[in-house]
Amino acid sequence: MRKTLLALAAGLLLAGSVSAASAADKLKVGFIYLGPVGDLGWTYQHELARQALVKELGDKIETTFLENVPEGPDAERSIEQLVRAGNKLIFTTSFGYMDPTLKVAKKYPNVHFEHATGYKRDKNMSTYSAKWYQGRYIQGLIAAKMSKSGVLGYIGSFPIPEVVSGINATILAAQTINPNIKVKIIWANTWFDPGKEADAAKALIDQGADVIMQHTDSPAAMQIASERGKFAFGQDSEMIKFGPKTQLTSILDTWAPYYIARVKAELDGSWKSEDSWGGLDSHMFAMAPYTNMPDDVKKIAEDAQAAITAGKLHPFKCPVIGQDGKEIECKGGANLADGQILGMNFYVKGIDDKLPGK
Amino acid sequence: MQLVLEKRAERSNTIALVSPLIAIGLTIVTMTILFAILGKNPLLALQAYFIAPLTDSYSLQEIAVKATPLVMIAIGLSLCYLANVWNIGAEGQFLIGAVAGSWIAVKTQGTDAGAWVLPAMFVLAAAAGALYALIPAICKVKFGASEILTSLMLVYVADLFLDYLVRGPWRDPQGFNFPTTAEFDPVATVPLLIEGGRLHLGSIIALLVVAAAAILLGRTIKGFEIRVVGAAPRAARFGGFNSNQLILLTFAISGALAGLAGIIEVAGPVGHLQPGISPGYGFTAIIVAFLGRLNPIGILIAGLFLALTFIGGEQAQIAMKIPLDVTKVFQGILLFYVLACDSLILYRFKLVFPNRQVARGTG
Predict the structure, then answer these.
(1) From A16, which residue of chain B is nearest by alpha-carbon distance?
(2) B198 contacts in A (CB within 8 Å)?
(3) Which residues in A lie closer than 8 A to residue B273 (C-beta atoms)?
(4) How far apart (Å, rounded) are the C-alpha atoms in residues B34 and B28?
(5) For residue range A226-238, what is the model confidence (pLDDT) as tens digits?
(6) What is the pLDDT of residues B74-107, one digit of tens each?
(7) Does ipTM top 0.85?
(8) A32, B5, B35, B261 - which has most CB atoms within 10 Å?
(9) For residue A160, which residues of chain B lie inside 8 Å, CB to CB?
(10) A123 and chain B: CB distance < 8 Å anywhere?
C-alpha cells in the first residue's frame, strides 16, 4: 500500500514537472495586488487588465498574481517569490510596494519591474501612473452643476499628492461654475474599507453634501448616496450597478493597453525603464458614461473631456492661487509643472479645510 | 448510546505530547480533502506547502525571518499564560516597541551617531513594550480589571499612535506626504547575517530568548513560581508566592519581548516605520504559544511551522494558483484542531448508554 502511494506521489510530481517544462518557453509575468481581486475597485481593475493581457498574448505568456499583499514587511518577500518562480516582468500595483520593489530590483538586475504610482526608478524598474486629476476636473464641473446645496462631499484616502491634486482639480473646476462652492473632506486613511467608507459618506451627507466623491476603492459610498437619494462618482471602476440612479460618472482605470504594450516590449526585447504618466489622451484611464444628468451638464462634461484630451484645457492652468491667497509659482510655462502636480502638498484657495500634517 | 467527554482523573502526558501531532495530521487530512474539492492535486499542493519551502536556502531564510517575531512574542506570552494571566495585547506592545525604538532612529537620522544607536533602540523598545504591558497588569492587580480586555484595547491605541506619528511629526519630508518615516541610517538597521539574503541578527536574538526562557522555566525558582501560580493558585498562596508580583513580572517580560520584536522587525526587514508593520504578529503569536504547548522549544518549532505555512501558502499561490484564502483557512483549521485535541489531555471520549445513565440518576 505504502509503495503504491509513493509511486503515485512520484508520478504526480513528475507530471507536475513535465507541465512546468512546457510552460518554461513562455514569458512569465507576475502581479502583486494590494486588495482581493474582488474588491470591485483598484485591484479589480488591475485584474481585468491582466485578464485582457492573457486574452491578447495568452499563447506567449503565463501570468501569476499574489493578492492581498500588505504594503509592509511581507511585500519584499512576495515580490522576490515571484522572481524566484521565474517571472521576468513583474507589476507591483500599489504605491506602498515602491521600496520593496526597488530592493528586489537591485538584487535581480535581469528581471524587469513595473511599479504603479511611485516615483523611484532604476535601470530595470519603470513606473506608471495616470493623470487622474484630469478626470477629477471633469467631475468637479459636473458636481458644481448638480449640487443644489453647493456642498460637495469628498472621501480622501491618504493625503498624498495624487489625492490632493485630485481634490484641487475638482475644486478649481467647480469654482468655474459656482465660485462659492464648498467641499467637506473626510480622510478615511485607508484605500479599501467598505465600513469606514460608508460611515464617511453618511457623515458627509449629514453635513449637507449632496454630491459624494471618493478616492477610496469600494462602492460603499455609492451605495450610501443611493440610499439617501444623493449623487456620487464612482472610483477606479464602473460602479453604476451600485447606484443606477446615483452615479454621475466614474474614473475608470484602464491598465490593459499599457500592460499589453509593456509585455510586448518585453517579448521583443525593447523594454526600457521609463516613467509613464498617461492622461486621457493616452487611454491610461477613461471616463464612464455620463449618466443621471441633464443634457446641458453632459455637454459641459463632454466638451471638457474633449478639450483636455486635445491638450487645450489644463486643470492647473496658471495662475493657481494657494489656500493662503498667495499665487503658486508657475514652473511649467502656462501650467503648473508635472513635478509640482506629482508632489502637490497644498490646497488651492476656496478649500475650507486644513491639509493633514501641514 | 451517546458519546460524551469524561474528565480524566489526571492529565495525560502522552496525549499532551502527541496532541499537536494529531492536530497537524487532521489538518493535513482536511486540507487534502479541501484541495481535492478545489480541483487541485492534493499531493502537489501539500508538496508546495510543506516540502518545497524546505528545499532551498532562500525559503529557509524567509521562514526564519518570518518566525523571528512570532517566536519572540510567543515566548513572552507563554510566561503569562503559564501563570494563568492573559495578555492578548502583544500586538500593541509590539507596535509601541517599534515606535519607541524608531524614535532614536528618527532623531539620529543624518547625524554621525555611532554604533550605540541600534543597541539603544533595542533597549528602549523593550522598556517601552514592558511599560505598555504593565498598564493592563497594574489595572488587574489594583482594580481587578480584566487584563484580556484592557490589553486588547490598548492594541488599537498603539496602532493609532503609530499612525499619528508617521502621518505627522515623523513623516519623511522627501516622502511626498506618504505616511512613512525616512529609511533608517545603516547604524540604525539590524545587520544581515548572509550577504544578499534577508536573514538578520534578530533570528539569533530569538534563539537566545528561547534558551533564556528554557533556563528560566526549567532551572530557576522564578520559573517554578510562575508554573505553580498558574497550575495551582491555592498551593502557590500557601507556599507564600506573591501572585500579584508575578502578574506584573510576566506581563513586563512579555511586553519587553514583544517590543523588542517590534523594533527588530522595523529596523530589520522593513527599514523604516510605517503603518501596517505587523500583519497581526501579536495575535498569530497566541496560536504559536499554544501550538508550542507553552514550552520554549515547542514554541520555537511551532513558530517555524507556522512560518512554513505562510511561505508555503505563498508558493502554493504561485505554483498551483491556490487562493490566499486557503492559507488562512489552513491556519484556522490548524488552531481549531489543536484546541480540540487539547481537550483530550484532560478529557477522554466515553460511550454512555442512556439506560445506565438513568439508573444512576434515580439510584
Answers:
(1) B44
(2) 76-77
(3) none
(4) 10
(5) 999 999 999 999 9
(6) 999 999 999 999 999 999 999 999 999 999 999 9
(7) no
(8) B261
(9) 176-178
(10) no
